[in-house]
Amino acid sequence: MTALQQAADTASAAAFARAQQVIPGGVNSPVRAFRSVGGTPRFIARAQGPYLYDLDGHELVDLICSWGPMLLGHAHPEVIGAVTAAAQHGTSYGAPTTAEVDLAAAIVERTPVEMVRLVNSGTEATMSVLRLARGITGRDKIVKFAGCYHGHVDALLASAGSGVATLAIPGTPGVTEATTADTIVVEYNDRAAVREAFATYGDQIACLISEAACGNMGVVPPGEEDGVGFNRFLADLCHEHGALFISDEVMTGFRVTASGQFGIDGVEPDLMTFGKVMGGGFPAAAFGGRAELMHSLAPVGGVYQAGTLSGNPVATAAGLTTLRLATPEVYAHVDRAAALLQREVAAALSAAGVPHVIQAAGNLFSVFFVGEDVDAVADYATASTQVTTRYAAFFHSMLDSGVYLPPSAYEGWFLSSAHDDAALDRVVSALPAAAAAAAGAEA
Ligand SMILES: *Cc1c(COP(=O)(O)O)cnc(C)c1O
């Protein structure tokens, strides 16, 4: 029997065939489709604690945690209890509730922001925050970094043009040149390039948006130079030029630290975005900042922003309960589990002779299958030198052993407080075979 026939025999393969008839590529978000690792995506029937269960009954240790949100593991009884109780009182009113105020207050308590507006997705948060920054400053241009992902906002789906500090080009068909003409894309951690962008366009730049630590090209932490962290450098440069510094913490916020913020060296960003963990597995996100800035939003100020389902009671209950349960012990557990896996992955890959770099931002880490000559990944240009065939072989071997890794070499690995010794042991015992598979893959 060929591998193809075998695949067609699984319930996931049958579901995927049906899905492709009615959903483009069979998935509602591209990375789920396994395009970059090959093979058929597993369709998930249910999840509990650290495990996903696919349609064929395989139990998989989940190392993506819904790409971040499931900090407490799947189907946490208290989160499910809160969601069930909320749903019994109605699922959306289109009118204010005290639970929304509690969630906003919980975010304000834990982070440098003074006020937040709740929205439904990280994309909506970054889209809205750009509009707010432009509305406040009366300027059009924005600066972003290559390899930072801020959701599928048109202006942020832009690639670097030729040369530093040139205007960006559309990153996908459907985004117009006019849209990206106001976006400047530079390499992450490249201070000279950021300086040049501000030297050229300083008085036209509304804001610079950056992930607090990059988690969407693999994990690339902000670098230090002469004792000054990259985020501090960015904030200072923005302020010299009258631009706003936006820290996108949709991925890092509440996942890496209880304080909701990461790696900003005591810098208070002008504006911040949150999502993922703060929604507890439901569509909830937020953007916030100083009251004086947030008061530019309608109905107080003139910058329009709205949402039918924003702050909906079910998502709000999930988010509030998750933040309440995200104690220092939760972060300590996830930190320990992440440190253990990093050590074990490094040992297995080294033993098999597979060149690699492992980088972390707190408990968020990723494994870069780069060449022997690379000892650190500071930017997207370097991340792109990965030998992705090695990752694909590693990924499929892990999957065969019951471990669900991100189906892309450019993603972080996510853990939860539910990842106990049994789940971690399964990951660790799967590593030698996966490392051998990576070693055997053609570069
Ligand atoms: C996931 C992510 C987003 C987009 O959030 P969605 O909820 O998927 O729209 C934005 N910024 C960062 C840093 C992210 O990781």
From TrEMBL:
<keyword id="KW-0627">Porphyrin biosynthesis</keyword>
<dbReference type="Pfam" id="PF00202">
    <property type="entry name" value="Aminotran_3"/>
</dbReference>
<feature type="modified residue" description="N6-(pyridoxal phosphate)lysine">
    <location>
        <position position="276"/>
    </location>
</feature>
<dbReference type="GO" id="GO:0006782">
    <property type="term" value="P:protoporphyrinogen IX biosynthetic process"/>
</dbReference>
<protein>
    <recommendedName>
        <fullName>Glutamate-1-semialdehyde 2,1-aminomutase</fullName>
        <ecNumber>5.4.3.8</ecNumber>
    </recommendedName>
</protein>
<dbReference type="GO" id="GO:0030170">
    <property type="term" value="F:pyridoxal phosphate binding"/>
</dbReference>
<dbReference type="InterPro" id="IPR015422">
    <property type="entry name" value="PyrdxlP-dep_Trfase_small"/>
</dbReference>
<keyword id="KW-0663">Pyridoxal phosphate</keyword>
<dbReference type="InterPro" id="IPR005814">
    <property type="entry name" value="Aminotrans_3"/>
</dbReference>
<dbReference type="GO" id="GO:0042286">
    <property type="term" value="F:glutamate-1-semialdehyde 2,1-aminomutase activity"/>
</dbReference>
<dbReference type="GO" id="GO:0008483">
    <property type="term" value="F:transaminase activity"/>
</dbReference>
<comment type="subunit">
    <text>Homodimer.</text>
</comment>
<keyword id="KW-0963">Cytoplasm</keyword>
<comment type="similarity">
    <text>Belongs to the class-III pyridoxal-phosphate-dependent aminotransferase family. HemL subfamily.</text>
</comment>
<dbReference type="InterPro" id="IPR015421">
    <property type="entry name" value="PyrdxlP-dep_Trfase_major"/>
</dbReference>
<dbReference type="GO" id="GO:0005737">
    <property type="term" value="C:cytoplasm"/>
</dbReference>
<keyword id="KW-0413">Isomerase</keyword>
<comment type="pathway">
    <text>Porphyrin-containing compound metabolism; protoporphyrin-IX biosynthesis; 5-aminolevulinate from L-glutamyl-tRNA(Glu): step 2/2.</text>
</comment>
<dbReference type="InterPro" id="IPR004639">
    <property type="entry name" value="4pyrrol_synth_GluAld_NH2Trfase"/>
</dbReference>
<dbReference type="InterPro" id="IPR015424">
    <property type="entry name" value="PyrdxlP-dep_Trfase"/>
</dbReference>
